[in-house]
Every structure is written in C-alpha cells, then in structure tokens.
Amino acid sequence: xxxxxxxHTQDDTEVxxxxxxxxxxxxxxxxxxxxxxxxxxxxxxIVNMEKVEFLDSTGLGVLVGGLxxxxxxxxxxxxVCTQERILKIFRITGLTKVFGIYESVQEAIDKRKSKxx
Length: 117
Hints:
The protein is of the alpha/beta class. The chain has a single domain (3-112), classed as Transcription Regulator spoIIAA, CATH 3.30.750. It is built from four helices and five strands; from the N terminus they run ββαβαβαβα. A five-stranded mixed sheet has the order 1-2-3-4-5, sandwiched between helices. Strand 4 (76-80), helix 3 and strand 5 form a beta-alpha-beta unit. Helix 1 runs parallel beside helix 2. The protein is globular and about 40 Å long. The protein starts with a strand and ends with a helix.
C-alpha cells in the first residue's frame, strides 16, 4: 500500500489528509509536507488519519517532529483518528497525552477555537 497525501484549508486550519501506510518508506513524504506547510506559515495543523491502515515508529516520529515544529510558532498539531488499532499505538506510547486526538476534523477545529477564546 502506498501513501496518499492531500491538504486543504478549513477555518484557518490546514487539514492534512493521510491515506495508506505511514512507515519507514513513506514517512519522509509526510515529513516533507509538514515542514513545507509550517515554512509557509501554517501553524495550526490537523492530520486526518481516518484512512491510515498502518503506522510504525518512523511515522510516530514524523508526527512528533511536526508537533515540535508547530509549537515553536505557538501552533497546534491535532490528529483525527477513530481506528482502534492506530489509537492503541498512541495509548501504548503515551502520546495520547501529547496530541489532541479527535473523532472528526470539525471536532478538532471546534476544540482549538474554544481554547483560544
């Protein structure tokens, strides 16, 4: 399975849609996209992982790296994920305490807006 990446702006937030497998072979493409978005001034990101079928430690590292990058600009990086097998990885690694993990893009946007006001 390959990795498909897409992104669009929704309510002042850049939404990155990821589909496929995030592993040692495909993670560099996601890393490049996150770096590019931050460099272009997008500091509030949501990574929609609803169609991610596999995530390994390299993929986790890319997400953590992206989070550090946006936080350097007082930004946010939240995740949309409802798949139990992917959520389990975040729970085991303790990353549920680091990332905001939501059931929909709209929920993530609403939560960020409520924190700002």
